[in-house]
Amino acid sequence: MTQVFKFGGASIRDADAIRHLGRLLAHFPERPLVVVVSAMGKTTNALEALLAAARGNDPDDYRDRLERLRRDHLATVEALFGASADPVAQRVEALIADLDRRHRAHAGRERPFHYDQTVCFGELLSTTIVSAWLDEVGLTTEWRDARELIVTDDTHQEANVDWAATAERVRGLDVEDGRIRVTQGFIGGTAKGASTTLGREGSDYTAAILAHCLAAEGVTIWKDVPGLFNADPRRFDNAVQFGRISFSEAIELAWHGATVIHPKTLAPLQQKAIPLTVRSFLTLEAPGSTIGGDAFHDGDVPAFMLREEQTLLEIRPHDFAFMDEARQHDILGRLVTAGLHAGLIDAGAMRLSLCLDSHPARLEPLVASLCADFAVVRRDDLTLLTVRYPTASLLAGLSEGREVLAERRNATTAQYLFHSRECPATWHIPA
């Protein structure tokens, strides 16, 4: 059965990384194999800056940035192929020329449309080079344009997949002939041929879409870390790696702020019970972390999520009335309109408490709106700690010496809101 591998920009950032990718894939001779590749390194950032220069009517800056993009990719081609670089270099040159033509053609269009016609070239360039290198080292490939496989609507920068049309096109991949299919993450195309992008975590989502349509055996996302952890290792000095968790648990962790796989990636895999494994492209022998259909291992170790730069709003009716369903509906509706997510919601008879991201452009209009109709007490500079599957002793250790401004608990989850000044730069999970 088909396997789908996804490689991010860090795993193909330069010629050495692409060589390493070739050696890694040589360890997996089983076919069929579909390889989804992101743009190289910081290429998407460079393309966004190129777009800004094009739309800012700064032709000199635009030309400088386009030439830098061209030189960087050609330097990678030269480092990989040496004297035999010409055929690949010509394909790279053709893509750069096409990018330039599209900028001229779409300069007057709305920015989201123009954005999608620009940033897609990062993945087109990277996969052109990667596919050619894999052929060079004896791993025969077929390069496929994801814009012709993944059909979307025209909601640019956050396109929605047309699943029926996509499934029909993906079935035409004919993955059974022994060649590795190499395609792009993050991008798709409308039925009329306009380029689109899939939004946040789009490359992971691409791998899930293809796996779903191919009824794949599994998806592997290769990262520069060995797997998924029960806490951010940069903030918790004794974080441990998950061996296996369920789709539903991974979605819970993401909802509470963990940097795990995005729920939109997990949904199409969960529908067909296709496991997703995160592995290290740096250390092939390191065991990975798998997200699958069973929940047997959920709760084996507690998980910890931090949300910093939080604001607590305590909202009460002016007339000392109940905070009933009608008032809660009104307040939460305003929250939706503001585009804010409440990491913690706690209701009392005459009070509704909301813990929100301190996003000034969104938060301040919301606060002003609420203050017009309710009594509002606001606290800033807070940290929200969420713990999945806690024990009483664990919670006592985490909260010791800190004022708890708000808390919420249920059978599987506890949340504490602290002053940020009372929180350490590096946390330690109590034994």
Automatic annotation (TrEMBL):
Domain Aspartate/glutamate/uridylate kinase: 1-279
Keywords: Amino-acid biosynthesis, ATP-binding, Kinase, Nucleotide-binding, Transferase
Gene Ontology molecular functions: aspartate kinase activity; ATP binding
One Pfam family per UniProt: AA_kinase
InterPro entries reported for this sequence: AceGlu_kinase-like_sf (IPR036393), Asp/Glu/Uridylate_kinase (IPR001048), Asp_kinase (IPR001341), AsparK_Bifunc_asparK/hSer_DH (IPR042199)
The enzyme's E.C. designation: 2.7.2.4
Record bears the keyword Iron: no
Catalysed reaction, written as an equation: L-aspartate + ATP = 4-phospho-L-aspartate + ADP
Pathway the protein acts in: Amino-acid biosynthesis; L-lysine biosynthesis via DAP pathway; (S)-tetrahydrodipicolinate from L-aspartate: step 1/4; Amino-acid biosynthesis; L-threonine biosynthesis; L-threonine from L-aspartate: step 1/5; Amino-acid biosynthesis; L-methionine biosynthesis via de novo pathway; L-homoserine from L-aspartate: step 1/3
Biological-process GO terms, alphabetical: homoserine biosynthetic process; lysine biosynthetic process via diaminopimelate; threonine biosynthetic process
Assigned GO CC terms: cytosol
NCBIfam families (UniProt xref): asp_kinases
Similarity annotation: Belongs to the aspartokinase family.
Protein name as catalogued: Aspartokinase
Upper lineage: Bacteria, Pseudomonadati, Pseudomonadota, Gammaproteobacteria, Oceanospirillales
